[in-house]
Specification:
single chain, alpha/beta, FAD/NAD(P)-binding domain, D-Amino Acid Oxidase, Chain A, domain 2, 2 domains, eight-stranded mixed β-sheet, 10 helices, 27% helix, FAD/NAD-bd_sf
Length: 405
């Protein structure tokens, strides 16, 4: 990792200090500065200002509504709305040129369902449709008819989201949030938080790697896979750890005809088209905590697990060649795979925005808006994100999300 040219803050005190300036931290900064009820100062501290190793830049940049909890369905629905309206929302920050769009490819998601999972899958589809999603359940015959290149012999059917699901430009989304936040007055610095000062039930200060200490009104933990380290600086804890996820881009000698969705195999391997190539990944074997600085790719994961799964599900993938690869980190919530959003129960000025377990990018518009509402108004004004509250981790009461990739 390149050594950053650290910058110092301009002031000695800020109303809000956000630890982490990738997509979650920048979304929070953006929504705060867009909120008419907020007129405070914001400092965003980002240790990797190139974002080379951020989960945002290393993600697979997708969004779906196929979840088992209504709140996650609604979070993604707002995410799609934001992505589709991104250019119009951002145009005011690009006075001399057209604002970019995020290249949303609305190809959908297809979950392949084994026979023993059909009843649960049908129930999820019914829940999703009840909350406005476009998901349909296809039995093996119609599934084969819709996707003739798919092996359905061992499937009980498929859950297909044909609308408002797909993939987009992750860095573009983050850059838009950041550009808007900075335009509106938020300050970003290339630095690292090394310690937090605490006096009883309040965090009082933030100490930076360059030695400065800044006073703070509220600290927001948006540190991604390093969230537990930041919480620990205040004497707090959350069940979030880094988990490695390997991504591979490959070429196939056989093209896949038609509009191919993001295909999710029952074992967790996914594959989707990327122009003439394909992107794939899986839940690694074994899957456990990783060092926050470990980005080494496990290449035998492709040879031993991913390729066999791909060939079984899509027989046209009989001859593949990896073109590129990378490894990123999930901020994995070991309690229930759901985000932890809200203030600490006793340290009332410490805000969590952590533990998305691979969903942070798609959830960033709604979570950033919600955190801003909670800070400014003391309550959620749009989506009620209270089921994701920190207190459930203290009670050890999971708010489980079944549909985790």
């Amino acid at each position: 990792m390149a050594i950053p040219a650290y910058k110092s803050p301009r002031a000695a005190s800020y109303d809000i200090v956000i630890v982490g300036g990738a997509v979650i931290g920048s979304s929070i900064a953006y929504w705060l500065t867009e909120n008419e009820g907020f007129d405070g100062s914001i400092l965003v501290v980002e240790r990797d200002s190139s974002y080379e190793f951020s989960s945002t830049a290393l993600s697979t940049s997708a969004i779906r509504q196929q979840y088992s909890n209504p709140i996650n369905v609604h979070i993604s629905q707002f995410g799609v709305e934001f992505i589709e309206s991104f250019r119009d929302r951002m145009q005011k920050f690009y006075p001399d040129e057209p604002a970019p769009d995020l290249g949303f490819r609305e190809n959908g998601y297809l979950y392949c369902i084994p026979p023993e999972g059909v009843e649960a899958a049908r129930a999820r589809v019914a829940l999703q449709r009840e909350h406005g999603a476009h998901t349909v359940f296809l039995e093996p015959g119609p599934l084969k008819e819709q996707f003739p290149w798919l092996n359905v012999d061992d499937l009980g059917g498929g859950s297909w989201g044909a609308k408002a699901e797909g993939w987009f430009d992750s860095v573009g989304l983050m850059t838009g949030f950041k550009r808007g936040a900075r335009h509106n007055g938020a300050e970003y610095i290339d630095n690292e938080v090394m310690a937090l000062g605490r006096d009883g039930d309040r965090v009082t200060s933030v100490t930076l790697k360059t030695g400065e200490t800044v006073d703070c009104g509220i600290v927001v933990n948006a540190a991604g896979p390093r969230a537990s380290l930041v919480a620990g600086m205040a004497g707090l804890s959350i069940p979030v750890e880094p988990r490695k996820r390997h991504s591979f881009v490959f070429a196939s000698r056989n093209p896949i005809p038609g509009r191919m969705p993001n295909v999710i195999d029952p074992g967790g391997t996914f594959v989707r088209p990327e122009h003439e190539l394909f992107l794939t990944g899986n839940t690694p074997t074994p899957d456990g905590p990783a060092d926050s600085e470990d980005f080494e790719t496990k290449h035998d994961e492709f040879d031993d697990y991913i390729w066999p799964a791909l060939y079984h599900r899509i027989p046209a993938f009989d001859a593949l060649k990896v073109q590129q690869f990378w490894t990123g980190h999930y901020a994995y919530n070991t309690l229930d795979h759901n985000a932890i959003v809200g203030f600490h129960s006793t340290v009332r000025n410490f805000m969590f925005a952590n533990g998305y377990s691979g969903h942070g990018l798609q959830q960033s518009p709604a979570v950033g808006r919600g955190v801003a509402e909670l800070i400014v108004h003391g309550e959620y004004r749009t989506l009620d994100l209270s089921p994701l509250c920190y207190e459930r981790t203290e009670r050890n009461e999971p708010f489980l999300e079944e549909a985790v990739i």
